[in-house]
Specification:
Number of domains: 3
Shape: globular
Helix content: 25-40%
Strand content: 15-25%
Low-confidence stretches: none
CATH architecture of the largest domain: 2-Layer Sandwich
Distance between the termini: 39 Å
Radius of gyration: 22 Å
Oligomer: single chain
Number of helices: 12
CATH class of the largest domain: Alpha Beta
CATH topology of the largest domain: Alpha-Beta Plaits
Largest sheet: 5 strands, antiparallel
Mean pLDDT: 92
Strand order of the largest sheet: 5-6-10-8-9
Length: 337
């Protein structure tokens, strides 16, 4: 303990009230860690990992702790290495559309800063207000913009990571077309901290859409969901940014446990789909969504649908999708399958 206090501030060495760090988001597993370290720089992460490696002390890296697969929870009494205090947005490059930031930056904060410069982060999650970039990369998070912008593997240009022995892999490059040698950063995306701790990243941003429209559909069968998906991909093409599927049970639990949520239909449906379009011309995008909706009503029997006209309505519809995990948490423990 004295070693860590020799270079970390007192507030960065935590030995009490560790329940939140030891328990996963869904409260399925509880570890027994007695120590949380919160470095503020890459050199501090180096010193921590180097010492732990030499002393054969197990380490559990943590980000925003929003994962649902128990990956950030200590199994036994590992030292928890939290990246929460490494939260600097280093640069938003407006010329190339690239963000450089530390691993502890919250996704929503990075996206808000990017929007000030006319961009968005090509990743969006229901946990965006809490999850951190380092954790997103370590778990190769997919998110609701995957359909439009693809995986993180294709949008991360470079990263910096500290290996178990304290050595640093500096691959924080921002060249978009780099065909040279091995692409070592890809080993760390999705590795969940097993190969090293991600400390910084360079992420390719996407232009901020000039218009966003959302339609919400109720369907009678899963076959109808598939038909609607095919129709959306063929008719909405370049403006289709999200196609999110929900069943009746997942929406019902949101309506039951999340305040101010309302089903936009008179009665429940077995299945629901949220379709979002985002583009550069509002009139054009609205016309495409209207044409798609008319085609869907014609081709799919007993289809119900509504289109959101305001940002508040869009937010209400998205809440039916994004609030399912918080709703499950409020409903009680979710048993593992």
């Amino acid at each position: 303990m004295s070693y860590f206090r020799s270079f970390l501030p007192e507030s960065a060495v935590i030995t009490s009230d560790l329940e939140a760090y030891n328990t996963d988001w869904m409260r399925l597993m509880t570890g027994k860690s007695g120590l949380v370290l919160k470095p503020t720089s890459t050199p501090q992460v180096q010193r921590i990992l180097q010492y732990c490696n030499q002393q054969r002390l197990a380490v559990c890296p943590q980000g925003g702790r929003t994962g649902l697969v128990l990956g950030s929870v200590p199994v036994h009494d590992e030292i928890i290495l939290s990246l929460t205090n490494m939260k600097k947005i280093l640069e938003i490059d407006e010329q190339q559309g690239i963000a450089r930031c530390e691993a502890g930056v919250v996704l929503e904060n990075l996206n808000n800063e990017a929007q000030k410069h006319g961009f968005i982060v090509p990743l969006d999650l229901g946990a965006k207000g809490t999850c951190q970039i380092g954790g997103n990369l370590a778990t190769n998070a997919g998110g609701i913009r995957f359909l439009r912008y693809g995986s993180l593997r294709g949008n991360v240009l470079g990263l910096e990571a500290v290996l178990a022995d304290g050595s640093v892999l500096d691959s924080l490059y921002s060249m978009r077309k780099d065909n040279t040698g091995y692409d070592l950063k890809q080993l760390f995306i999705g590795s969940e901290g097993t190969l090293g701790v991600i400390t910084k990243a360079a992420i390719l941003l996407a232009p901020k859409p000039a218009s966003v429209k959302v339609a919400f559909f109720g369907l009678k069968s899963f076959e109808d969901v598939i038909r609607l998906c095919r129709l959306a991909r063929s008719q909405l093409c370049e403006v289709l940014s999200a196609f999110e599927f929900m069943d009746e049970a997942s929406v019902a639990i949101v309506l039951r446990h999340i305040p101010n949520t309302v089903l936009p239909f008179a009665s429940p449906c077995p299945f629901y789909v949220l379709v979002e379009v985002a583009g550069s011309e509002e009139k054009h995008d609205a016309e495409k969504l209207e044409s798609f909706t008319e085609a869907a009503v014609t081709e799919i029997e007993d289809l119900e649908g509504v289109v959101a006209d305001t940002s508040q309505q869009i937010s209400k519809l998205w809440q039916l999708r994004e609030a399912s995990n918080p709703a499950c948490s409020k409903a009680g423990f979710v048993p593992p399958t």
